[in-house]
Amino acid sequence: MPVLVVNAGSSSLKLSVLDDEDSVLHAVNEPLSSGDDPAPLLSRFLSSVAERPDIAGHRVVHGGSRFIQPVMIDASVLSALDELASLAPLHNPPAIAGITALKRVAPDLPAVACFDTAFHASLSPAAYTYAVPRDWNVRRYGFHGLSHRYASRRCAALLGQPVASLRLVTCHLGAGSSLCAVDRGQSVDTTMGFTPLEGLVMATRSGTVDPGAVLSAQRRLGLPAATAEDILNHRSGLLALAGTADMKEVVASGGLALDVYIHRLRKEVAAMVAAMGGVDGLVFTGGVGERSSEVRRLAGAGLDFLGVAIDPERNAGVGDDDMEISAGKPSVRTVVVHAREDVEIAGAARQFRRVR
After folding, report:
1. Is the pLDDT of residue 170 over 80?
2. Which residues are annotated as catalytic?
3. N or C end: fewer C-beta atoms under 10 angstroms in the chain?
4. Using H for helix, E for strand and C for coil, what is the string for the chain?
5. Domains, the chain, ordered by start
6. Cα 253 → chain centroid
7. How buried is 217 (Cβ within 10 angstroms: 0-12 exposed, 13-18 middle, 19+ buried)?
8. Is the pTM of this model over 0.85?
């Protein structure tokens, strides 16, 4: 039986149905504003599917410290997700709305929650602890875990080696971007932290900024915390540097914005390598990672000291298929993997199907 995958974002609802070979039988990506009821979209989608799914998987961005693996959704889980909503106010509420809407539309359809933070539950205390007072109750959670896990497994398959034998840096580059140090299948470090704001320069997010700089701006400009948070999330990053959040336009114009983006990317890749004590593979995924040959070229050009070597023709020839773009036989092999969080979600849902 097929699996329904529900990915409710802050501005869209992505729905897909996958068969047991992970082929997409039917999919839609519909705009959905905050506060809109997703039930009508879900109802129309399910009515258009030839073979009705027997289980659903929901992407949930933040599982906190409680949810470190997929879980069958029941009333207690839904209540706990409500309590965690404040950790990801832009992402968790839409996921909860999608879960409750599907329950209304298909009350007998069992559903599984899959968490973007769960893959990073393997981080050590040294990697997830911030040097701030304990009563702040903050830690590094990391995000994009579904994508990083899939990219690492898919890279291993492309290289013909078990993921348990490889040290990989997975680069999820899109509107939101993060890196992960995947050491033999386990996340040991990542660039995003307590929120998806830390780390790389992103489309509209600043990435890592000195907290003192934020506090200084608040004092000098009289910025309330909520306003500063909005600026850092929605009016910073490439948008602030280049006047556009579109990577195609940034690459075309070049200049400081692209230089800052690539500088931070190279630096953080090297940091992920240090966390593992070496590296065997570099993986590009996500909208920018998959589509921008120039970002891949520029990133690789500054990582030759690690053993990265990218073939110009292979890099320029990346299309719809996952492929290796290494030049010759370098010590660090580079691949491009198309993001498939839906595969991870469907796989988790199938595991629950088997034990029901």
Report:
1. yes
2. 116
3. C
4. CCEEEEEECCCEEEEEEECCCCCEEEEEEEECCCCCCCHHHHHHHHHHCCCCCCEEEEEECCCCCCCCCCEECCHHHHHHHHHHHHHCCCCHHHHHHHHHHHHHHCCCCCEEEEECCHHHHHCCHHHHCCCCCHHHCCCCCCCCHHHHHHHHHHHHHHHCCCHHHCEEEEEECCCCCEEEEEECCEEEEECCCCCCCCCCCCCCCCCCCCHHHHHHHHHHHCCCHHHHHHHHHHCCHHHHHHCCCCHHHHHHHCCHHHHHHHHHHHHHHHHHHHHHCCCCEEEEEHHHHHHCHHHHHHHHHCCHHHCECECHHHHHCCCCCCEECECCCCCEEEEECCCCHHHHHHHHHHHHHHHC
5. 3-115 (3.30.420.40), 160-336 (3.30.420.40)
6. 27
7. middle
8. yes
Q: Residue 225 burial (CB < 10 Å; 0-12/13-18/19+)?
A: exposed
Place of tokens 């992103």: 202
Assigned token pair, 326: 């290494």
Q: What is the pLDDT of residues 117-133, one digit of tens each?
A: 999 999 999 999 999 99
